[in-house]
Fold each of these.
Amino acid sequence: MTLAETLIHLLPRGDSRRFGEVFLEHLEDGTLRARHRHDRMELEGLEELSSPQELREMAKWDTKGEYRPLKTAPNLISGWVTSCQDSSEFLKRLDAIYPGVFATWAAYEKGTHDPTPLRDTLDRQTGMYRFAGSITDQMANEIMRETCAKGCLRTIAWPISSECPTSRLKRPPQDIPVICTEACTFAVSEARRLVKEAYDKANPPSES
Ligand code: SF4
């Protein structure tokens, strides 16, 4: 099954799904439509965006006009709609909003993509990030709580380490899940910051 076919399997005609902050519909006439979930009750007045390029540009900025470095941050702007009949084109448009997110879910659900434990990701870091791997479990939990849960829509699928048992995420019937299978650069840089902060606290500059 291609990715576009998987999308149609998860979003059959006459149905709708939540995909992060996006509300997806597959109308009875075959039209695939997406808009911000805040606009789900109202089509009137929405700006039609009819290409991946237009959607990518829209997703670059938040409501204050500031750049959105993390595309799954919960600050996608509303006021737009996109629709087309072709599922491959529709997938490209969703990818412009949430790059690679649908493919990640599809591979995870199929069992062909396993999450990378946080410690494996951190242990691979080099240069200024190489110390990030020495985080404690408490720091890892802080990253999940303060960086991920507060600033990102993704549901974490990775364990802290390969020894930690994790259960596979299940898809809620009305959702296409937005999941995280490997810690991103924001989490890695937060790990480094916490390690450095703990080191500096334990080794204050000597007074001479
Ligand atoms: S590590 Fe994953 S869940 Fe956490 S902020 Fe990055 S992308 Fe989001």
Amino acid sequence: MTTTGSNERAEAVINLDAVRHNVCTVTAAVAGAEAMVVVKADAYGHGAIPVARAARDAGAPWLGVALPDEALALRDAGDEGRILAWLIVPGDPGIAACIERDIDLSAGASWAVEEIASAARAIGRRARVHLKIDTGLGRGGSSPTEWSDLLLQALSHGDTIEVVGIWSHLACADEPDHPANDEQLAAFQEALATAESLGVTPEVRHLSSSGAIITRPDMHFDLVRAGIIVYGVTPGPGIGPPWPSGLDFRPAMTVRARISHVKRVPAGHGASYGLSWRAERETSLALLPLGYADGLPRTTRGAQVMIAGNRFPVVGRIAMDQCIVDVGDAPIEAGADVIVFGSGGSGEPTAEEWAAWDDTIGYEIVTRMGARLPRRYVG
Ligand SMILES: Cc1ncc(COP(=O)(O)O)c(C=O)c1O
């Protein structure tokens, strides 16, 4: 596809000052522990490379990603700091590639320890490994019953594996009062005690993601993994904004577009596929050239956007490339600037509001903004 590189139709504006500010806020909040900035999934839709650079500028000693390829892309872009990649599959060529490029790997199963050890042996370099214990989430990681076997297995590969981390992930970090948080903390502490009794003393122990970074200082250990708060979006409805005192996370993504067409329609006129909406009175419909191919959720109900300082409803179904805004009698013309969501500071909707309109979480709203939506970096 030949592109003009134009952002006239629509764009996601990423404020890297906000990213840097949020990284500094995390760093200050976890004083005593280090911060890992999670840049998986293209930095939650914000662009992994620019966000990683901003995070490093702000002093982040660690970056975290899910996939080896995501880590390798950071190395290709010149990042030389500590990176952890935590999602590998058997036979993953990313295992050897990560060891070669000095990227830490996670292992939570015996096959992973074996494959990392044999890749490290073939390369002639010791792999840095974070052993993962499943403390209750039910995703990756060793079950508590297999934990000491996993530790012993890793120890038996001491020539090829250096256990630098022990870690786990919370199921309910977004619900501070959920009893699972304390249960997982207790399970994690037990796993650490078992490791210590076997002589494994890792450089970093890590459990907290955003929700626990804010609400559970007792879970910070040596390292925290900060994702969504780096992007200024809430990890859970009760957590902020308003943020607890001393914390101020600023949204980094603004999605804006320009109206491509405005037309006057009579009462009873429908809008979009299925005609699920009809005008109650004569009104003006403005066409927003942004649809589910750009990342707007098709299942959204009751969404709003801001045009010329006022909010207007998105009406009818969101289509692949476009959706319709009922602007009533407002003097809106083709070319008008639309803020789909942003910081909320000027009254525009936020990612959290879009999440509520689609019965999802802010994470999904920012992460799903598609490749077709050009990113523009400011700050
Ligand atoms: C293992 C792991 N750690 C940390 C994070 C960051 O979580 P959050 O964005 O809530 O900070 C994630 C994100 O899903 C994750 O999968």
